Automatic annotation (TrEMBL):
Keywords: 3Fe-4S, Electron transport, Iron, Iron-sulfur, Metal-binding, Transport. It comes from Streptomyces decoyicus. It comes from the Bacteria. Ferredoxins are iron-sulfur proteins that transfer electrons in a wide variety of metabolic reactions. PROSITE patterns: 4FE4S_FER_2. Residues 1-29 form the 4Fe-4S ferredoxin-type domain. Its cofactor is [3Fe-4S] cluster. SUPFAM superfamilies: 4Fe-4S ferredoxins (SSF54862). InterPro entries: 3Fe4S_ferredoxin (IPR001080), 4Fe4S_Fe-S-bd (IPR017896), Fe-S_cluster_ET (IPR051269). This is Ferredoxin.
Amino acid sequence: MRVHIDQEKCCGAGSCVLSAPEVFDQREEDGIVFLLDAEPPADLHEAVHEAVAICPAAAISVQQVEGAERAERV
Ligand code: SF4
């Protein structure tokens, strides 16, 4: 899994950080999201999918990477 964020869309709601604090964090100055881990391990994928679903700005997207991770789609 590869995580992408669109900082132009992000409104700083912070929902993603609550869902997956290992993957997302917010800038101190304006609350805009940034990634801590763009390729999180399998045990975090569910939390990342949840973050995608609840982000009010649709600023998060995920891409499945080819190869070893194919078998572990959530
Ligand atoms: S949930 Fe969406 S809008 Fe809120 S901080 Fe995360 S990326 Fe930004």
